[in-house]
Amino acid sequence: MPCGLEEIRVRAGKPVQYRFAGGNTTGVNILQSDIEEMINYLSGYSIHAIAPQLAAGYFTVEGGHRVGIAGQMGCDGERVTAVSEIASLNIRIAHQIKGIAMPLMPYIRDENSIYNTLVVSRPGEGKTTFLRDCIRILSDGCDGKNALKVSVVDERSEIAACYNGVAQNDVGKSSDVLDNCPKSLGMRMLLRSMSPDVIAVDELGGESDIEALNQLVSCGIRILGSVHGTNADDLRRKMLPHAIERFVFIDHDKKGVRCYSIYDEAHRLLYSTVCGIGADK
């Protein structure tokens, strides 16, 4: 049996699929009634409590595991108003890799705070995993430096994986999480309410996100975020704030081994690491 369960795919009328890091296997055929019972069980037999999350296409269960849904939706223009029939589930198994960001931390952390930092990669390369570990390290303190107050906007419950408002992933002792809140709104709320040293946010991109980032910078708040992209040209097209001082690019080779490279604001390579073996530049 392959190790490292990553996803369980459940589809009405089809065999369940188990997706592992080392391969896939299939199980028994699933009926529509099975999916209905799974939704009831996973929601704690209170499906109305997760209705707002269902309208967004997913919900988070205890342990930080995320359940994506597909099926028949009722819509009003661009807004989902009801979920009438759920025919597919994608249960993404939560994994946290601690220490993955530690080799790059000397280039992200300065004496009193951090450099404004963006983590950049294509989808599925590990941006959120790396960002989560940065948050944990910074809010716990490291290398003799004090812990920082890190406020997290977790719009899709992927960083902290909150369940009933409590983080299921370890995001450190000095972090505060605003779960299931739009990024631009959440950044402004945390700026007013939590007196953060750092605001962390995943998958920036919209104009409202960039406007909120500029407001944070003008108020002296340090930024730790992630964005989809592959190179500096991608970032220029997104009109990101000029105050960004560090860029962490994540990529992988043909064998799937990830490479982490950090650049300064002039896009000069500072450090790169593959499987924990680093090289200063």
UniProtKB/TrEMBL annotation:
Check the record and name the SUPFAM superfamilies matching this protein.
P-loop containing nucleoside triphosphate hydrolases
Residues in Stage III sporulation protein AA AAA+ ATPase domain copies: 5-266
Q: Which GO terms describe its molecular function?
A: ATP binding
Alphabetized, the UniProt keywords read: ATP-binding, Nucleotide-binding
Instruction: Fetch the InterPro entries from UniProt.
Output: P-loop_NTPase, Spore_III_AA_AAA+_ATPase
Q: Name one Pfam family in it.
A: Spore_III_AA
Determine if Electron transport is one of this entry's keywords.
no
* Tagged with keyword Metal-binding: no
What is this protein called in UniProt?
Stage III sporulation protein AA
What is the native source organism of this protein? Answer: Agathobacter rectalis
Q: What is the taxonomic lineage of the source species?
A: Bacteria, Bacillati, Bacillota, Clostridia, Lachnospirales
